[in-house]
Amino acid sequence: MLKWILVMLIIVGLTVIGTIMVGKSEQEDYGASTKGNITRLSIIYLFLGVILVVGLALYIYFYG
Predict the structure, then answer these.
(1) With contact defined as beta carbons under 8 Å apart, do 46 and 16 qualify?
(2) Whole-angstrom Cα distance, residue 48 to residue 34?
(3) CA–CA dist 44, 10 (Å, integer)
(4) Structural element, H or E, at residue 12
(5) Is Transmembrane helix given among the entry's keywords (predicted)?
(6) How far apart are CA 40 and CA 30, in angstroms?
(7) What does the alpha-carbon distance between residue 35 and residue 31 come to, in Å, rounded to a whole number?
(8) What's the pTM value of the predicted model, to 2 decimals?
(9) What does the pLDDT look like over 15-40, one tens digit per residue?
């Protein structure tokens, strides 16, 4: 179970890092809105990671 949780956390972490790296290469037109978008996406990824870990843990607990 711990192995799958770590895999999911790594995937979510890499996704957040990728989003932030893309946001740092902002263009002139997107300056102000990019920071807000990156923040919102990072929060969404964080919540998604928590939900996925809890869901996987429950699945393994009941069906594993």
Answers:
(1) yes
(2) 21
(3) 16
(4) helix 2-24
(5) yes
(6) 15
(7) 7
(8) 0.55
(9) 878 877 776 665 556 666 777 777 88
Q: Which residues of 39-58 are buried (b: 16+ CB within 10 A; e: fewer)?
A: eebbeebeeebeebbeebee
Tokens at residue 4, please? 């799958």
Which is higher by pLDDT, 26 or 59?
A: 59
Q: Which amino acid type is present at position 47? A: F
Q: Which residue's entry shows tokens 């997107």?
A: 30
Contact 1, 64 (CB under 8 A): yes
Token duo for residue 25: 């290469």
Contact 15, 45 (CB under 8 A): yes
Q: What pLDDT does 38 receive?
A: 78
Distance CA 51, CA 44 (A): 11
